[in-house]
Design a protein that fits this description.
The complex is a heterodimer. Helix content of chain A is about 70%, strand content about 5%. By secondary structure, chain A is mainly alpha-helical. A two-stranded antiparallel sheet of chain A has the order 1-2. In chain A, helix 4 runs antiparallel to helix 6. The longest helix of chain A is centred in the N-terminal third of the chain and has 34 residues. In chain B, a hairpin with a 7-residue loop joins strand 2 and strand 3. Chain B starts with a helix and ends with a helix. Classes of the chains: A mainly alpha, B mainly alpha. At the A-B interface, helix 7, helix 9, helix 12, helix 14 and helix 16 of A face strand 2, helix 6, helix 7, helix 26 and helix 27 of B.
Chain lengths: ~550, ~725
């Protein structure tokens, strides 16, 4: 039974996608909702039957031979990190349908079919245990999103969709090249083709430092665009602004995480030498992204674009935690993927609800909505605070851990008992200090947004008439139902992240264990001998 | 520098303090206001349109206060902890420091109890006051107000009672949120929204410092739990080194911690250079100003330093910096306060100034003096604010001291006037008031601590200024000829601020101030009594009641060096015991200030608006009073130095992003067309195939490079 959960989670949305496509237009949205909810059942099953004591193991594993002579097979399996990201996807799916209930009026069949297909592809990415499944699913997420933006987006949707597609597609082709090279390298070493991630991981570390650096560059071409890491982010604000609400929610909630997940699973797993060597560069790009995108947020007039740019800024923290390569940073980063999905997803939903009523996102034309929509305003302030990283809400834990991980990760500090809380790594206090300015900048732009849209004297677009929207003035029960699960999750995981940490800690520690870092000889004069015969980061130079 | 020998000795002797477990009901102290939040939220959802939320709040907070009193009576030496649940815990090895633990837990010692007593006590009283003060908003923002009010007390309890630095941080930002929500309570007023935003952002700057301090403390000591951190041998060793002057034995990681932490303290407690948010915070309803922005939240910085006092002592420069920042803030804020006309703003600046005294007290190693001043200030400043609030409430928002006069003689304003008078005497440091004793402890210590005499003189001078501006308010508004003009708002909510300031409402034109009711009068009277009685605490025990409270806490030091080798015991000021000398000197200074205020603002004043002596003196000073009235243009300076350039940079980034970063991307995308000469072909279909071939080409190119690399390797 439990073997069917994972295939079920991937395939059920496809089954319902087919049903939605075949049945009449009028039933599309209710069928889609039912489909999303039923597809969430195997995800719940995964959550409950997952063995958290062995969270680092890939559970529910299954594989199927396809073309044996090329080593092609279809195999899946999840560890704690994959599990949580699948759970996030399973949660956001039904909420997206609910959130688009009234917003999508025409061609609903097309919309919900692709939304369900997208759901399957995303879960597939997180469940993949071989390169084939991963790559197919990873690429296939592009098509539904392209259509969602291209058909259902706002005025400039065509350009946004094309840019989104070409940019990320180009990136992932290059990533494919790197991954194929890796497979060739492995085939060389063991004499036959294999695309199983375990095998690749085993042999990837035998590549020389230079090879690793190239492979990392190739992989990052795909993943960094997806994250997006500065300076590869310019597709994102456009795509987000033009996408329909559900598209933005999925884009921010899950699709961006494919990039950070890729970095976590592939870059950190396959090319450790290159990661350690280039961590300062990646961290610098992350920090530039945090500050640069954050400041750009502050001068936006389009509220959706503001939130879109805030994703660029926020995901900088996430990448920073990853390249810290210690338990704190990685845990923080995985939590960041989840928490950003919850809070930013909710912000996009809220902006969508507002847009349905006012048909504008221009902060010059709308303002002070607290006076008119107190429930909406309360949710808005709540999720803004989650996004700002207020302690007690979920965003804080992940931001705190990413920054602490960055701070700890220092060859200079990690010298035995002198600084027991430090870990070996290439970053350190300075990186944390500069990244921490992002905390202030986030407060500046998010409170600027709330100050305009929620507080202040009521401003409505000229000629606005409440009765024309067909919606209640404040949020409807359906809309509140859409937001409540996210709000509860934000609060609970802010105060009690233990269930998440249980799933994250072991897998993250197994990644860190594969590093066994030692400080470069120059900086370890005071260090006590480190008990490992591990790789020297600088070995090949 | 400071002679720390006796301090380290006593700390070392006390350090292995037993950690007892506190009774579980201690957790009800923060839980009660949380229950208040939940109940008020429910009432808000149900659309309750009565004063019920206020009374629920008062009940919850009163229970919380009673429990705090029980905690006080039941407490003995050392720490007592109560663990709620595991908040954040993970590990990456079995070694020392290879795990991170921050439980949702509470740790109680004397310092905690001291703070919680006045936090919960004042919160209860002020909630009662607010039940009447906010009555015009029943059915509108009333529920919202009390939700945030309860949430504030909960956050403050977490801040003060938390058992680790992360809990403190939770409370720290939590009170910041509530401050934001309550300053922006009248959210239709753009000024209120701007002030709320400013408060949050300026505090965030401090929070970054605090966060970095927490990181560094964890990295260096491997723990952020108070009981482990302060008992650690490493820290004790540093304290020893510090006491013997071996500063070079202490690694920078340890001595940098307080430098980060103090940034947080300066933000939350409105010290230089981060004080600018507090005066603007007066946009909030007055009960909020009294509770959050005068009595409790703004003392969190003092609490932080007192709590982590041992960490501050291992840095050679940390405490002197704190002392100087506090002193200069006290002086600067006092000079601004002298020139303001809005009585609530004057009180705000006096809060900044008094907080400066507390920091100076911490800096010159009298944590007892600082703690005592926190306590007395909490009472008399809450009293002053609430009295101002009563005026604002009764006179339709009027706060300009040139438009109010002689309230003593207006029917129904006796209790307010008496309350105000008691508060003013305390703030002015009039002999034998509580404020007099607590301020003197700090002043005397500054004079006898080697190297800090200049701080003593500056603080003494500031005490004179304080007495002057305090009684300027009293002599203008509460005594003298009767005259009043109504203000122009009715608590802001429905009447947006238009700029027709209410000059046309005159005393005779049908405006009747409405005198405060029982709730406001009762609270004012209670606080007035508390403010007077607080003076008696000075005479309990060896060095006052507060000294006994913090004796077994991390804030404990022995400033008089009763042990051998102490240098302070023999110190003298003008041949007298420093405290005795200070009584006389500061009495004189305070009274002189009051006399100046009398001469300028009461003597010969015929109307509310004109005080001939003061106006003549002001004219003689040239442009200086105007500069002070404009707050020495510090806001403008910050605008010019920080906000402006940052905004310009943001706009530049925005264009860089559109034109350069995105432009390059577009160029890359455009090249294949240009090369193929098919630029004018249709958009969709061809484009995708082009994209595919371009990407494929790039990928192939990269693969070839990789293979070449492999060949050469």
């Amino acid at each position: 039974m439990s073997q069917m959960l994972l295939p079920g989670a991937i395939l059920l949305p496809l089954v319902f996608a087919a049903l939605v496509a075949l049945l009449p237009q009028e039933r599309a949205r209710s069928l889609a909702l039912v489909g999303m909810l039923i597809s969430a059942i195997p995800v719940l099953g995964l959550l409950f039957s997952f063995d958290y004591a062995h969270a680092a193991d890939f559970q529910f594993a299954g594989s199927m031979q396809w073309i044996a002579e090329f080593g092609l097979e279809v195999s899946v399996g999840i560890d704690g990190v994959s599990l949580l990201l699948i759970a996030l996807t399973g949660l956001l799916g039904p909420l997206c349908v609910l959130g688009s209930w009234t917003a999508i009026k025409d061609r609903t069949r097309l919309f919900f079919t692709w939304l369900l297909i997208l759901q399957a592809a995303m879960i597939g990415v997180f469940a993949a245990r071989d390169l084939l499944v991963f790559y197919v699913c990873f690429e296939f997420t592009l098509v539904p999103m392209f259509i969602l933006i291209n058909v259902f987006g706002s005025t400039n949707r065509k350009a946004a969709a094309i840019k989104f597609f070409i940019y990320t597609f180009t990136g992932s082709m290059i990533a494919l090249a790197g991954l194929v090279y890796l497979a060739m390298h492995t085939a060389d070493a063991i004499g036959h083709w294999t695309f199983a991630l375990d095998d690749l991981m085993l042999h990837a570390s035998t590549m020389s430092g230079t090879e690793q650096a190239w492979v990392m560059a190739a992989m990052l071409a795909g993943f960094a665009v997806k994250v997006p890491l500065f300076p590869f982010h310019t597709w994102l604000p456009l795509a987000h602004t033009e996408a329909p609400t559900a598209g933005s929610v999925i884009l921010a909630g899950v699709l961006l995480k494919l990039g950070t997940y890729g970095i976590y699973r592939f870059v950190l797993g396959f090319v450790p030498l290159a990661v350690v060597e280039h961590a300062p560069l990646l961290a610098t790009l992350s920090i530039i992204g945090i500050v640069y995108a954050g400041l750009i947020c502050w001068v936006q007039t389009d509220v959706k674009k503001l939130v879109a740019y805030s994703s660029v800024s926020h995901l900088g923290f996430c990448v920073l935690g990853l390249v810290a390569v210690n338990t704190t940073g990685l845990s923080g980063s995985v939590l960041y993927m989840l928490n950003h999905g919850l809070s930013t997803g909710a912000l996009f939903l809220l902006i969508g609800f507002m847009y349905e009523r006012y048909h504008t996102r221009d902060m010059g034309q709308i303002g002070g909505l607290a006076a008119k929509m107190p429930v909406w305003a309360s949710f808005m302030v709540f999720f803004t605070m989650a996004s700002v990283g207020l302690p007690g809400l979920n965003g804080f834990i992940s931001e705190f851990l990413c920054l602490l991980g960055t701070f700890q990760s220092s060859f200079g500090l990690a010298a035995g008992d002198a600084n027991p809380g430090a870990t070996p790594g290439a970053l350190g206090p300075w990186f944390a200090l500069f990244a921490a300015t992002g905390m202030v900048i986030a407060a500046i732009y998010l409170l600027y947004m709330v100050g305009k849209v929620v507080w202040g004297p009521l401003v409505e677009p000229e000629g606005h008439d409440d009765s024309h929207t067909g919606l209640p003035i404040d949020l409807s029960a359906r809309e509140i139902t859409t937001l409540m699960p996210l709000a509860i999750a934000c609060l609970v995981f802010g105060l009690y992240p233990k269930p998440l940490m249980q799933a994250i800690e072991a897998p993250v520690n197994s990644v860190v264990a594969s590093y066994e870092l030692e400080a470069p000889a120059a900086t370890i004069e005071h260090a006590e001998p480190h008990d490992s015969g591990a790789s020297e980061p600088e070995a090949d130079h | 520098m400071l002679d720390l020998a006796p301090i380290a000795m006593t700390l070392a002797a006390d350090s292995p303090a037993a950690v007892a477990s506190a009774p579980a009901w201690v957790m009800l102290i923060p839980a009660m206001p949380m229950i208040g939040v939940v109940l008020c939220t429910l009432m808000s959802i149900m659309g309750v349109r009565s004063k019920l939320p206020a009374f629920v709040t008062v009940a919850c907070l009163a229970v919380s206060f009673l429990l705090t009193v029980f905690m006080f009576t039941g407490h003995s030496e050392g720490w007592a902890t109560a663990v709620g649940w595991e908040w954040l815990h993970y590990s990456w090895g079995d070694g020392n420091g290879q795990n991170f633990t921050a439980n949702f837990a509470f740790a109680v010692d004397g310092l905690t109890i001291l703070w919680m007593l006045f936090v919960t006590g004042l919160a209860t009283l002020i909630a009662l006051y607010a039940s009447e003060y906010m009555a015009t908003d029943v059915g509108q923002g009333y529920n919202r107000f009390f939700i945030a009010f309860n949430l504030f007390v909960f956050s403050m309890a977490c801040l003060v009672m938390g058992s680790n630095l992360l809990m403190l941080y939770l409370g720290w930002e939590g009170v910041g949120l509530c401050s934001y929500l309550l300053i922006g309570y009248y959210y239709k007023k753009p000024e209120a929204v701007a002030a709320a935003k400013k408060a949050f952002i300026v505090n965030r700057i401090g929070d970054v410092g605090l966060a970095l301090g927490v990181y560094l403390a964890f990295v260096h000591f491997g723990t952020i739990e108070y009981t482990e951190l302060f008992a650690s041998e490493k820290l004790q060793g540093y304290l020893h080194d510090a006491a013997e002057g071996h500063w070079s034995h202490i690694p920078w990681q340890a001595s940098a911690i307080p430098l980060f932490l103090m940034v947080g303290a300066f933000g939350k407690s409105a010290q230089l250079p981060l004080y600018v948010w507090l005066p603007d915070a007066m946009e909030g309803p007055t009960p909020v100003s009294a509770l959050i922005h005068a009595a409790t939240m703004v003392t969190a910085g003092v609490y932080l330093i007192a709590r982590t006092y041992p960490l501050f002592q291992v840095s050679e420069i940390a405490l002197p910096i704190v002392a100087w920042v506090g002193t200069l803030t006290a002086l600067l804020a006092a000079t601004i306060g002298m020139a303001q006309f809005d009585i609530k703003r004057i009180m705000a600046y006096s809060t900044v100034s008094q907080l400066g005294y507390m920091f100076a007290g911490l800096g010159v190693m009298t944590s007892v003096g600082a703690g005592f001043h926190v306590l007395t200030h909490a009472f008399f400043k809450a009293l002053l604010f609430l009295a101002c609030g009563a005026v604002m409430h009764g006179f339709a928002g009027q706060l300009d001291l040139r438009k109010l006069s002689g309230l003593w003689k207006v029917p129904g304003w006796r209790i307010v006037t008496i309350g105000m008078f008691v508060g003013c005497l305390n703030l002015a440091g009039f002999p034998l008031t509580a404020g007099f004793f607590s301020k003197d402890m700090i002043l005397a210590e500054a004079f006898v601590t080697p190297g800090f005499a200049l701080i003593g003189w500056i603080l003494l001078f500031t005490a004179g200024l304080t007495a002057y501006y305090t009684f300027r308010v009293f002599f203008r508004v509460f005594v003298g000829p009767v005259e009043y003009h109504a203000g122009d708002d009715h608590h802001g909510d429905d009447h947006a601020h238009d700029d027709s300031h209410g000059d046309d409402h005159d005393a005779g034109h049908g405006f009747h101030p409405h005198a405060p009711g029982w709730a406001i009068n009762f609270v004012l009277a209670t606080l007035a009594v508390c403010s007077i009685v607080a003076a008696g605490l000075y005479f309990i025990g060896d060095h006052g009641w507060v000294a006994g409270m913090i004796h077994d806490s991390t804030a404990h030091i022995d400033p008089h060096g009763d042990e051998a080798g102490g240098s302070h015991g023999s110190a003298a000021l003008f041949g007298l015991d420093p405290h005795k000398a200070m009584y006389y000197i500061s009495s004189v200074v305070g009274i002189v200030g009051i006399i100046f205020a009398y001469a300028f603002h009461l003597h010969g004043r015929k109307s509310a608006g004109e005080a001939p002596a003061a106006d003549a003196f002001k004219a003689a000073l040239g442009p200086i009073p105007r500069w002070a009235e404009n707050k020495w243009y510090v806001d403008e300076l910050y605008q010019f130095l920080f906000r402006g350039p940052l905004l310009v940079l943001s706009h530049i980034f925005r264009y860089v992003d559109m034109l350069l970063v995105d432009g390059l991307v577009n160029l890359m995308g455009w090249l294949p067309y240009a090369v193929g000469g098919r630029l004018r072909r249709g958009q969709d279909g061809v484009l995708q195939s082009y994209a595919a071939s371009m990407a494929g080409g790039l990928a192939l190119f990269l693969l070839v490079i990789l293979l070449l690399v492999n060949q050469s390797a």
